[in-house]
Amino acid sequence: MLAAAAAKTHAGAAVTAVVRQYWALTKPRIVALLVFCAVIGMFLAVPGLPPWRALLLGTLGIWLASASAAALNQLIDQRIDRVMARTAHRPLASGALQPRQVIVFALILGAASMLVLALWVNVLTAVLTFAGLIGYAVVYTAFLKRATPQNIVIGGIAGAVPPVLGWTAVTGQLHPYALLLCLIIFVWTPPHFWALAIFRRDDYARACVPMLPVVYGVEYTRWHVLFYTVLLVLVTLLPYLTGMSGVFYLGGAAVLGGGFLYYAIRLMNPPDERFAMKVFGYSIVYLMALFAFLLLDHWLVAPALQGGFVYRRIG
Ligand code: HEM
Ligand SMILES: CC(C)=CCC/C(C)=C/CC/C(C)=C/COP(=O)(O)OP(=O)(O)O
């Protein structure tokens, strides 16, 4: 009796451990921010609340595709992940999951995503999401990452696409404002990643991945972080300048942008080696907060100021 109970507990713990490995395979925290940006895209696409069907099923489909892309990335990057200290503990790199399990898992998630989006959201969103999945898992991971120090600039397009997916999930149409949100994430990606790459450059060098600090050195990468941060601050003015967002957003973007500029300038002459990771950490808080400001401005402040939703559309 006791032995049976112990065996049951043991089996339960083993199942939990396997579920945890599959969950880790989806890069849950990165995907959470991607999906957050997609959901904000949905809210910005219409006055008031988006239709619940597009909101729920669109979010599910985009999440499934991003999780599938993250699993495929780890399948293709097995060798690299095994060599780098930061990634050696990942399910596939550590041997906790086998490649066949990862392929099946990624294909199921990818297929489920396409079904949900094509059948219950719209075909445009399904096609663009598929392009994002292939862009990240195949174009970036299998080719660009190994080929050029500009890998993450070009590959960043895939990571920047979620707000567009959110927008099209709700409206079925591409809109210049959605592309503007995509541009913001695209320009944000280099300082986000290169800050981490500066700190982890030895990892990348050992794995023979031609990241910018490995190929051109830390000083050169710091200048690039600063350049893209200045560009980011300018690009984040566009939602206000094009009439997409109001002064509440502008204030938030200015304060957040000022913070990012402070970090990027300080990174030119950092107090210690770990400072690059502080810049990386700030980049994540920055993007989350910037998109929260976009939503608050659109949803709470603009209607209150205007006495209702008034959308000043381009053209
Ligand atoms: C090509 C584009 C990108 C590259 C190369 C990149 C690279 C990275 C790397 C190497 C990490 C560390 C991951 C780890 O240690 O497991 C990371 C973390 C993170 N990235 Fe990115 N990233 C990109 C785009 C994005 C995008 C578009 C988002 C969201 C909109 C994002 C959100 C995050 C978050 C939230 C983390 C922290 C994860 C954690 O704390 O576990 N990244 N990124
Ligand atoms: C459908 C859709 C929108 C897909 C989204 C694609 C996606 C999951 C983008 C995230 C970008 C990311 C985590 C890059 C890091 O990869 P890396 O291999 O350079 O980092 P690593 O060394 O930590 O694995």
From TrEMBL:
GO terms for cellular component: plasma membrane. The keyword Transferase applies. Pathway: Porphyrin-containing compound metabolism; heme O biosynthesis; heme O from protoheme: step 1/1. Its EC number is 2.5.1.141. InterPro entries: Protohaem_IX_farnesylTrfase (IPR006369), UbiA_prenyltransferase (IPR000537), UbiA_prenylTrfase_CS (IPR030470), UbiA_sf (IPR044878). Gene3D superfamilies: UbiA prenyltransferase. It comes from the Bacteria. It is a multi-pass membrane protein. The chain crosses the membrane at residues 30-49, 55-76, 102-121, 127-144, 151-170, 176-199, 220-241, 247-265, 277-296. GO terms for molecular function: protoheme IX farnesyltransferase activity. PROSITE patterns: UBIA. Converts heme B (protoheme IX) to heme O by substitution of the vinyl group on carbon 2 of heme B porphyrin ring with a hydroxyethyl farnesyl side group. PANTHER family: 4-HYDROXYBENZOATE SOLANESYLTRANSFERASE, PROTOHEME IX FARNESYLTRANSFERASE, MITOCHONDRIAL. Belongs to the UbiA prenyltransferase family. Protoheme IX farnesyltransferase subfamily. Carbon 2 of the heme B porphyrin ring is defined according to the Fischer nomenclature. This is Protoheme IX farnesyltransferase. It comes from Mizugakiibacter sediminis. The gene is cyoE.
